[in-house]
Specification:
alpha+beta; 2 domains; 5-stranded antiparallel β-sheet; two-stranded antiparallel sheet; 14 helices; 7% strand; elongated
Length: 335
């Protein structure tokens, strides 16, 4: 067994000198600290190894569970060139030089840092909302413009100038999202919300959604004779409908509908895609889109003309449509 040395040895020796009451009190404090830590907000993204970089300045940044972007207190103080110490920031902004140029909201935010747990756990971290950086820089630069900064404070203003130039081009939130990798999850979360709104969990009752005008115009634009009393349509009309309607509902919806639709032994859908749309969001959007598509059809002379207009008015979302062989070189006419 390895011999205990250094700080560990000293800590063990100090613990041995404690009375039973002192040990009990220490244990209580440790339990209280663990319980308090459980109540702290947790960061889902970010680490000290992937800091926010603006010029030569590096500030660890994180995204909390509620989406709040925060900058590490220690990193922010160092990034501003203030040295180290949690009291540096509140002391600087409560000083005579800068306080007249600091609003109440900024003062309150500086005095009340957000205490949170980093994604990797460990000791809780103090931080500030990322948006505070712009306010800090504005206050410091205003004080410099007024000529009230001390010579030993001028380097802080220079750092603020570097920071302002950096995030003015992109935006502090975008920079934090890029540094933490949150932008990818944000996109996934947005897609999940869209699908939840559009795609129903259960199959909805059948109600006719596509009016006769839709197919009449489709036949006309394809150069085919239309028989009002017939429900027979070329098989590839389903692929065309996917292209001109379902792919244009919302991001990811057509792909999700395809994945959820049940198929028979021959691989054909057992029911219409629109029966999987939610009645409060998906169905109204479908009806609105069909009306728009029919209107564009009526304003078009040929299929190509119609598609060009539709692509401008209601472009499809970025999902590749695999066309059947007979449509790969489609000229917009006939079968």
């Amino acid at each position: 067994m390895a011999e205990i040395s250094g700080r560990a040895k000293g800590g063990k020796a100090a613990a041995a000198k404690l009375t039973p009451e002192q040990r009990k009190e220490r244990a209580k404090k440790a339990v209280a600290a663990r319980e308090a830590k459980k109540e702290l907000p947790k960061a889902t993204h970010g680490s000290a190894d992937h800091p926010l970089r603006i010029g030569d300045v590096e500030i660890p940044c994180y995204v909390l569970e509620d989406g709040t972007r925060v900058l590490s207190q220690r990193g922010l103080i160092a990034g501003l060139g203030m040295g180290s110490g949690a009291d540096r920031l509140p002391s600087f902004f409560s000083g005579k030089a800068v306080s007249p140029y600091t609003n109440k909201q900024l003062t309150a935010a500086i005095r009340n840092p957000i205490r949170f747990v980093a994604p990797h756990g460990g000791v809780p971290v103090n931080g500030y909302p990322a948006t505070i950086l712009a306010d800090i820089c504005e206050s410091v630069l205003s004080a410099r413009s007024a000529g009230v900064l001390q010579p030993q404070q001028m380097h802080i203003a220079e750092q603020c100038e570097i920071l302002v130039r950096g995030f003015a081009r992109v935006g502090i939130i975008a920079l934090v999202d890029e540094a933490t990798g949150y932008q990818k999850d944000r996109a996934r979360d947005a897609l999940a919300k869209i699908l939840e709104a559009f795609v129903a969990k259960e199959l909805q009752p059948y109600v006719r959604k596509f009016p006769a005008e839709f197919y009449e115009e489709m036949f006309r634009l394809r150069g085919l004779p239309f028989e009002p009393d017939s429900v027979k349509r070329p098989p590839y009309f389903g692929h065309l409908t996917n292209d001109i309607v379902y792919r244009r509902l919302a991001p990811g919806v057509w792909k999700e509908l395809k994945a959820k639709v049940k198929k028979n032994a021959e691989g054909r859908p057992k029911h219409q895609l629109h029966r999987l749309l939610t009645p409060d969001v998906g169905d109204p959007r479908l009806r609105e889109l069909i009306t728009k598509v029919v209107t564009v059809m009526q304003l078009s002379n040929k299929w190509r003309d119609f598609k060009d207009k539709l692509d401008r008015i209601a472009p499809a979302y970025d999902e590749t449509l695999q066309l059947p062989f007979e449509l790969e070189n489609d000229n917009g006419e006939g079968l």
